[in-house]
Amino acid sequence: MRCVIVGLAVLLGGVPALAQTAGGASQGDARQGAALARDWCSSCHVVGTEPGARGTDAVPSFVSVARDPAKGPDYVRRVLANPHPPMPQMPLSRRSVEDLVAYFRTLVRP
């Protein structure tokens, strides 16, 4: 498993636009994003809302990122494109990034 979402968590933010690309054209698939988050990010981040979700307190949870109004979708995209240590480089396609952004959007409200 890879610790992907210090950047993912950071990539979220301005919630209403979360599912849109920088150009505002396409939307991602939140279910695919949830699966990617479980596969790539859950070794470091708490990626869901279920009790007992794995992850660590050393990095932000997806929910905390999703609900932070200072972190918008473009920020999350930038973090995923240029991750910083200890977050690894991830071979994510543009579509995968948009799927992750769509998943974050589902976490905005309690």
Count the beta strands.
Answer: 0
Output the CATH homologous superfamily.
Answer: Cytochrome c-like domain
What is the makeup of the main sheet? none
Helical fraction equals 40-55%
N- to C-terminal separation? 27 Å
Instruction: State the CATH class.
Output: Mainly Alpha
Assign the CATH architecture: Orthogonal Bundle
Write up this protein.
With 110 residues, the protein is mainly α. It has helices spanning 5-11, 30-41, 62-66, 73-81, 94-106. It has a single domain (5-106), classed as Cytochrome Bc1 Complex, Chain D, domain 2 (Orthogonal Bundle). The model is unreliable at 1-25 (pLDDT under 50).
Which labels suit this protein?
110 residues, Cytochrome Bc1 Complex, Chain D, domain 2, 42% helix, globular
What does the secondary structure layout of this molecule look like, with pairings?
Layout: H1 5-11, H2 30-41, H3 62-66, H4 73-81, H5 94-106
Helix pairs in contact: 1-4, 2-5
Brief summary of the model shown:
The protein is mostly helical. It is built from 5 helices and no strands. It has helices spanning 5-11, 30-41, 62-66, 73-81, 94-106.
